[in-house]
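This entry is set out below.
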Amino acid sequence: MSIKYTKEQIEAMIECTAMEGEPLYASACVNQSDTLMASTELTSEVVASYLLSHPQLLDSGIKRIRREKTYAVEHSKKPRAENSKRTEDLMAIQLVEDHHTGSAYGTMIAYQIPLKNTNKDIGAGKIDLVSYHEGLNTLFIHEFKRKDNSETLLRCVLEIYTYFSTVDKNKLLSDFGHSDAKLIPSVLVYAGSRQHEQFEVHESVRALMKELNVEFHIFEEPNHDQTC
């Protein structure tokens, strides 16, 4: 069972993360899916509400990186599925190889996009998936979670917002051949997942997503039924 905190402790943890220059998604309280100590208030809702009222904290730990190499990297080998994160990586690879397309987010065109420029950019992270929607002329960068992933929706939102704020947006669009497109951060999850359930009930998290311009997408699973 995870440790429960008071509202004051949660707010102090967020302030401490910001003061230390760490990204907000790395704060332990951001991934708390339960309620506060001796309260019915959801931890994610308290954090999201606090960030909405303290917008100066939102860019905590974000370092904008100018990447000299292309974002459209070629991957030399597939990762082995040794843990849940590797499994998600393999799923992302398959979606790109299959040219998976969703009506809301377009066609998957790339996976595991590095944000770092040099090895000095420690912890810069990678974008899970990139898709292009021709009808909307929009490139989406996705934080992708498989159905049984236990992370909170709030953590997913703050992580993709961090990556969106870190990446050289004009270069990313240019490297994928869509210089005139819009670039939008997205959380892409399965129907019925923890993140989907939280999206339905966490009003403050939804409000934070709107403030950060982070979209929410349900993965459109392929229909393998065949008719004669």
User: Anything to note?
Assistant: The two ends are 52 Å apart (CA to CA).
